[in-house]
Every structure is written in C-alpha cells, then in structure tokens.
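Backbone-to-sequence.
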C-alpha cells in the first residue's frame, strides 16, 4: 500500500480524500495556491506544498509543479479529486511516466471516453443502448440534415469533446440546423479546443440516472447501484438521491448490467460513473462515462457502506476488489444537497466571501463534507462549493424529513447560500412525489423568491450566535475569532512550506 499520497485538489473534496487516507494510515500531501494558504485542506494535511498564484493555470492545473511536489515529498500516488486535472488523459500519462501512480482510470480510457463519439461507438459495440444519432463527428450540413431526418426532430447538437451538458443545442427543424451546427462548432472549439460536433435525437423530460462502477486490475467489475441526478440547473446538479424513485428492481438490474458492460467496453479500471437518460417509457440510453470520483459520491457511500476513496486507492495499488456484486445492497435512502456560496435570489451568481459564522447540523444520519471553517474565506478564483449536506434514513420520506431538519439547522453567515431555496425545493409536492425529471427546476422553481426567508434565517442565526457568546452583537469578525479561534490562531509557529 502507498505510504504517502498527494491530493491535487482543494476544498471539500481534498478534505474528503484526506479523511480516508488518514484512516488507512497513509500520509497526505496537500497542494495549494496563494489564495488558499489558510484553506481547510492545507490544515488537514500532514504536509503542504505551495504551487503558485491563485490562477488555476499557475496552481491546481500546473502539472509540472504538482509532479515536482510529489517528487519533493516522496508521494507515490496522486489523487486528482474532481475537476482540475481529474479527467486529463495527458496528466494521467505524465504521472505514469514520472513513476507516480495516478489514482484514476488508465490514460487510454480517459481519452476514449472523453470523446463522446468514440464512447458511443464503444457502447454500441458492447450492447449498451445508445440514443439514436451519429457515432462520428460531422460538419457537413447535408449529412447532419440527413441524420436528423432519419432519427426525427427535435435533435440535439453535442460537442464530441463536451460532456456535462456543455455546448449542447436543441434544433427543431432542418432550416435551423446548419447555422446551429456552425455556432455549436465554434463554441466547442473555443471551450474545448476541439470543434467536433455530432447529433442525437433529443429526448425531452427524461431522467438522469447514473450508476457507480468499480473495476480492479484483475478483471473484476461491479456496480454500486444508481444515483438519481435529474434535478439540475444549467447542467449543475443541485439535489441527488439514491435509490432513484424511477427504477423498478428489473430496470435497476438491466441498467446495472449495462453499466458494467460499458466499463468493460472501455477497458475501465478504478471508480467511474456511467450516465444514462431514462425516458418516460422506461427505456434507458447511454449518455457518457465520468472518469472521476464525483461530487455526489457520498450518497452511494451512505447506502452501500462502501468508502469509494478507499476502493480507489486499493485498486490503484493493485489490490483486487474485496467484495462481489452480490455483496452490494442498498440500505435505506440517501439525499445530497449542494451548498454553494451563491445567491439563489439573483440568478445563482457566485457569492464568495468570508465565512463569519458557521453552525452545521448534527445528529443521526447526517454527513457533511465541507472545506470551510468559521473565520475562513471562500476565494473568488474557484468553484464556490462550501459543503455537501448528505442524509440517510430508512426510506425516502424519512430521508426528506431528515434533510428538511438538517437544512433548518444549517447556518452560514458571511456569504449567500441556497439553503432557503433547497428547503422550498424539498417541500415541493413534485419532489415529494418523486417526479424528478430534468425539467424540474425550470418547471417548478423558475419564479422562486426568498419570500421573507432571509430575515428569518438572520434572526435564527442571531439567536444561535447569542447562545454561543454573542459575537455578532459586538465587533463582528474580531469577536467571532475570539469566540471560536481559527486554526491559524491555535497552530502556533506551524506553517505549510511554500
Ligand atoms: C440529452 C438530453 C436529451 N436528449 N441528450 C445533459 C448533461 C449531459 N450529460 C447530457 N445531457 C442531456 N443530454 C439527448 N439526446 C438531455 C440532457 C439534459 C439533461 C440531462 C440530465 C439532467 C439534466 C439535463 C438538463 C438538460 C438536458
């Protein structure tokens, strides 16, 4: 087993990965940018190495500096988390060349699955249902129109190098197709450095159901059931749950088997996610494979009892999976809410800033993965995720009730958060009925407004704060620090090396 792992990430996911490393007796090396010198992930690590300026290109995307940090600290493996270098095939290959284990799939699997047309070909050849449409990139408008006629309008233009919904366009008629294709190609070229596009039949009002898979180096490949992720806003997931309210046992088994075929088709090793669209008639179709640990992985951990980061590390170290498909079972129901520094009353614009006060919910069945602390700062340079609130209970209704309680207890002051919005979303009868389709947010939450909630939350926070010594009543930041010292005040002379 590895003695030391470098975590090439920041925030909640870096902290999450370090927690498992500590439990496995593995030393952790954090890396950080100038904006993150006092960040939670730096404080949680055994060692920390400064990378450079706040700009991701100079820090968390700086491959040479990160590999240099691994060499300097004797880290034998690198965990990339999600985002940044997690799905960069060239970086995975560079790690291998440098003799450092990349904790993720082989570079060839990342590359093949990163091109959505290659992925579609691999899946179609392995009997995994794909959405009708092209399996090669196409720019010729006449060929695009011919394919659109074949599958029927509306069609969806997608970028071959895209994914996660970036660069998609719905086209309803042949006269719009050529212009939309040209524009989508330009956008894809600008966003991904690759302007290749293809088309699929557009499936409206579907569900996004993804399967977690694990594959080791010894030919074992299993799935860890599904996650329902249909509740998204502009391709950003907001609430995820497992099991999916839409699956029957038969459908779950068929989709799980297809997910395992998908992983095998790509020569996949390590943890991954196979995304499917599930239509109103219960037919499912391959969407894409995410070749990383995902933001929403904790709900799978909550119902299966399996630590996905531990499995990733064991697989990367060459260990065989210690359990089989028949050992995997769901216990209860889990829900995750993502808490970002953003303003739900103002089009969810990012709202980074100071964390002046923090009270996290506690009690049975609650897990919080966070990368913040009271007195800390949310930098403007990165994804402003503050925390993931995850609950588990014996069934869906109990999990919803538990999430409602947890959201009510959660107090974050200093930055705007979507906590009030999430409470209303969970109260919505469509959510309670399990009618979670990809159009949930535009359909049910489009005209949401705080409706007097903000003052109510502020009042609650004030009362809670008063019980804790009344920091808000006096000089704000200074008194808060005195009431709850920051790690910097308790650390003494210790500082991460830069
Ligand atoms: C689709 C689709 C409808 N038809 N493909 C969005 C994320 C990316 N992985 C693929 N996505 C979609 N692909 C076809 N042929 C609808 C979506 C989609 C969506 C999927 C899941 C959750 C929310 C969504 C919101 C809009 C569109």
């Amino acid at each position: 087993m590895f003695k030391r792992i470098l975590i090439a990430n920041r925030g909640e996911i870096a902290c999450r990965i370090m927690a498992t490393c500590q439990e496995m007796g593995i030393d952790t090396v954090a890396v950080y940018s100038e904006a993150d010198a006092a960040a939670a992930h730096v404080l949680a690590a055994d060692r920390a190495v400064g990378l450079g300026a706040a700009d991701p290109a100079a820090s968390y995307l700086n491959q040479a500096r990160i590999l240099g940090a691994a060499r300097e600290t004797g880290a034998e493996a690198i965990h990339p988390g999600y985002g940044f270098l997690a799905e960069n095939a060239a970086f995975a290959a560079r790690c291998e060349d440098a003799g450092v284990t990349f904790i993720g799939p082989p570079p060839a699997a990342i590359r093949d699955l990163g091109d959505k047309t290659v992925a579609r070909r691999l899946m179609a050849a392995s009997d995994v249902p794909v959405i009708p449409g092209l399996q090669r990139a196409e720019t010729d408008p006449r060929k695009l129109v011919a394919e659109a006629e074949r599958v029927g309008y509306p069609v969806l233009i997608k970028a071959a190098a895209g994914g996660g919904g970036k660069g998609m366009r719905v086209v309803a008629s042949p006269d719009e197709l050529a212009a939309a294709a040209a524009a989508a190609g330009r956008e894809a070229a600008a966003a991904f450095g690759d302007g290749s596009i293809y088309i699929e039949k557009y499936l409206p009002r579907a569900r996004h159901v993804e399967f977690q898979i694990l594959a080791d180096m010894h030919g074992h490949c299993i799935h860890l059931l599904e996650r329902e992720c249909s509740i998204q806003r502009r391709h950003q997931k907001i609430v995820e749950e497992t099991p999916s309210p839409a699956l029957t046992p038969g459908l779950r088994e068929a989709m799980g088997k297809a997910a395992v075929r998908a992983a095998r088709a790509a020569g996949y090793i390590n943890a991954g996610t196979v995304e499917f669209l599930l239509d109103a008639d219960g037919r499912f179709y391959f969407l894409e494979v995410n070749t990383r640990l995902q933001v929403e992985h904790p709900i799978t951990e909550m119902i299966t009892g399996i630590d996905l980061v531990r499995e990733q590390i064991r697989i990367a170290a060459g260990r065989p999976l210690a359990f089989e498909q028949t050992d995997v079972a769901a216990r209860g129901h889990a829900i995750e809410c993502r808490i970002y520094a953003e303003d739900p009353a103002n089009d969810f614009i990012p709202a980074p800033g100071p964390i002046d006060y923090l009270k996290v919910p506690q009690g049975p069945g609650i897990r919080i993965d966070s990368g913040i602390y009271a007195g800390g700062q949310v930098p403007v340079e990165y994804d402003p995720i503050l925390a993931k609130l995850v609950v588990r209970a014996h069934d869906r209704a109990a999990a919803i009730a538990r999430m409602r309680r947890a959201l009510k207890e959660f107090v974050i002051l200093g930055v705007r958060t979507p906590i009030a919005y999430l409470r209303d979303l969970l109260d919505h009868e469509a959510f309670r009925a399990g009618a979670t389709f990809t159009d949930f947010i535009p359909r049910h939450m489009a005209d949401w407004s705080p409706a007097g909630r903000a003052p109510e939350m502020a009042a609650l926070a004030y009362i809670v704060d008063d019980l804790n010594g009344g920091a808000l009543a006096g000089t704000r930041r200074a008194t808060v620090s005195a009431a709850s010292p920051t790690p910097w005040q308790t650390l003494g002379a210790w500082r991460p090396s830069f």
